């Protein structure tokens, strides 16, 4: 009893109110400028954008702007182009991420070994990342163009094509054009993050495994992969979301054609908004995409947690 | 220089209590060592004195002035970190003068202060080097130099020697002791190494699980440990402890250890007849002889020569009895010997509470 | 036997590296090739690796007779300002994330992750509506404002991982030496994060340098156009002038590639330091 009575006056913080406030608000002061910008330039427009999904907003049409409830979503459910675009998005994202990841991992493993000229090789291999995305699009569109680019002629020479035609205008294979450009452009991202993760693996682990008689492949499976797993989970998740939203290459290279065969949801949103100027419908599509990506991310996070717990 | 008063200081992170009310007064110029196993709260207490952790309850005074609300920079204390925390982008001179530059001390004063400190720690030829280019021992000395240049009210040491190899640690221990004798500065030193605690301290504060177990001079703690924790923590090889039953009938206080072995005590203990007690005796006090009358028969299991002496592990009354002797070749593995516990060397503790009872 | 095996492995390793380098550089090489091919040879020598006659006519035209130098200047201003501002803001924010635990941190991280998840296309109309009354459309400062907001979340995560790699002891030592927390941040922690800041700076510069969508939508006049918009104008004419477009492309690539070339190793270093903890 006496102890409790005595303890109270010592413990109370006797600093003046303003100083206590200053020290409590310190972390907020550091992050405030960034936060204010994010909220005003991204969050507020996002909310407004979401509200567009429930309104009839068409630019240049003075009578638009009315509240129409779920009409856009009803239209969306029947929109064949949208469902095709959704399928294409899965195709585009799946192949792009898988190829970027595999090739990025191999590059990271190659660069993890010390050799003469490694610094230069690393810089050159990472260079595509610095190329503006739409310029890569123009660049690859040119390479696939049989008039000014070599690729159709090579493919023809190898017997993979019947005639040196433009891959981007073939309805069945056009998607591979943007995917290849995307892989070229995105390998460095995976290579950089995975290389960083590789270099933080303690070297003595490999030595211990080598002494225990593990083959290089066993070492890779029992040491490298488990160490990389958390990085892999995070980067694959971020990258998937990002690539699903990434329309630049498709807009520049094929503009969704031929016959919507390369139209992904993100490029469909772009076309709806800026070619047809129908912002309401574009927002509705964007909301659906956002919801799908959120669900996907949650699943990955949950999966990662169960995997971590099982360990 | 200043005294430090710690009054009923508590620390909790949410519902997890780290310190359960610590009271301690450190005299001006005293060298106090906080010792205990990792997680006992000793580092937290030190960091609270430094101002790096908030004080959940209680009061800390430095030089008679309450410092609970002061930032670390206003407490005028210096600290040596386990990692040394040298600024990698500054030279040795830059590291040592940083605190003085922050206080806008005159250039000449800074120069004389750091050259004085450098001389004391034989760092003079290294002044323009960066920490990266120094050996572990040199870095440690720079960290000390950084602390002493500005003659603070108190020095705080947070396990400063634990990153050094054994030989260097012994050497630096001596340096720290000498430095303290030179400067006479109030010092608080945290370590988990009981040898460091014994050799450096004017007073040791033994802590466990957020509670101060005993405060006293090194020899106090060694000779009269207040409880089982302190008894077991101080001393290497560790004290022998045997559970038994206290008997005080017939005016002859004794402890029954099992298998019919009874050990006589010098006087009555402060407990009742039949109580569960733990009998403690340090290995160097166990007498190993072949033909003592009151002795206990034992068989040698293991002989560990340390060069300095020999540690014998003997099996007696179903327990492992360790004995330390300066003599070599006292016994060999498999020998049957007899051991005895001199009455004046026996410590007695209550098994349930752990407190000393005789 | 053993050394033979090792030689084969080494050769395979170098060959694989060479393949990657070739794959990375070939498209860029083609940009360069087209940019120096005179118009009369463009189609007839479409597949040749190097034209029989290399000329700098396209560069000459782009630099002297087009608006490209203006676009280039605008892009420089926008990208540099964005990079500098983002680096400052994300250093502050990343420091708070790395060193403090505070109420609302979870939600702030969640908010920042959310910003990485939706198609930015969705924001164009609302942002236009907000910026237009403030006179920030058709102006470089409006573009900078938008780019800063878009890049701050990722840059903050990046800076946080750099700060996580710096021991906390250092600023505690500085605070005991007599520094306030902000002084410790500025005098001790920031100098040590310079490589990380360089990486962030380069990363954001490249991102801002490449941005097309908002540059296209928020800017209508030539005076405030950035070079991606200008580059696109080569396409939107009746026929694509490949030579001039690629000459402009080469010029546009120079600053971004130079920047990236120098900072990429800090990017790996910084991420390594951060990864140790995770």
Molecular structure report:
The complex is a heterotrimer of chains A (311), B (358) and C (278). With 311 residues, chain A is an all-alpha fold. Chain A contains 14 helices and no strands. Helices cover 23% and strands 34% of the residues of chain B. In chain B, the strands form four sheets. Chain B has a six-stranded mixed beta sheet with strand order 6-7-8-3-9-10, sandwiched between helices. In chain B, strands 13-12-11-14-20 form a five-stranded antiparallel beta sheet. Chain B has a five-stranded antiparallel beta sheet with strand order 15-19-16-17-18, with no helix packed on it. Chain C is mainly alpha-helical. In chain C, helix 4 runs parallel beside helix 7 and helix 8 crosses helix 9. The chains are: A mainly alpha (311), B alpha+beta (358), C mainly alpha (278). Chains in contact: A-B, A-C, B-C. At the A-C interface, helix 3, helix 5, helix 6, helix 7 and helix 9 of A face helix 1, helix 4, helix 5, helix 6 and helix 7 of C.
**What is the largest interface, and how many residues per chain?**
A-C, 89 and 92 residues
Radius of gyration of chain B: 25 Å
Rg of chain A from C-alpha positions?
26 Å
Can you count the beta strands of chain B? 20
Q: What is the string of helix and strand elements of chain A?
A: HHHHHHHHHHHHHH
Q: How many helices of chain B does DSSP assign?
A: 8
Q: Quick one: how many beta strands of chain A?
A: 0
Identify the notable features of this structure and list them briefly.
heterotrimer, B: 358 residues, alpha+beta, 6-stranded mixed β-sheet, 5-stranded antiparallel β-sheet, 20 strands, 23% helix, 34% strand, elongated, C: 278 residues, mainly alpha, MetI-like fold, 2 domains, 12 helices, 0% strand, globular, disordered C terminus
